[in-house]
User: Fold this.
Amino acid sequence: MPPLQAGTPAPAFSLLNQNGETVSLSDFAGKKVLVYFYPKAMTPGCTVQAQSLRDSKAELEAKNLVVLGLSPDPVKRLTKFTERDELNFTLLSDEDHAVAEAYGVWGLKKFMGKEYDGIHRISFLVDENGVIEHVFDKFKTKDHHQVVLDYLS
Assistant:
């Protein structure tokens, strides 16, 4: 399934965060939510992306935006990632990748000649009414935060 497009209602979800607490997309009704999918916690690209979002939190919050990072990592790994990198936003564990599949970001990937299923690094801006406003699918991990801020400005 291809990634969802702008104008589509965002699929609802409830997942465990890095503290083992259930977080639902509906918890943020009335706010914009950046639902960003990343392949694996504590890997170089994902770390750079997360640190940039961490460092931009005040600017993002000023735009009424909440950041939710989703990966297939178990809660324990998300806890380590949050502590190691002093992350100040919510990470969610999508271990069975059901949410990634609902958003169309789980699929065939190729790396160094090998093919495997995994998460494609795509982010969705969900508006205050739960509709996908914009899809970010062309960015470098170090620039992701800036691409989002530029769009919101």
In short: The chain has five helices and nine strands. Residues 122 and 137 are 5 Å apart (CA to CA). The chain has a mean pLDDT of 95.
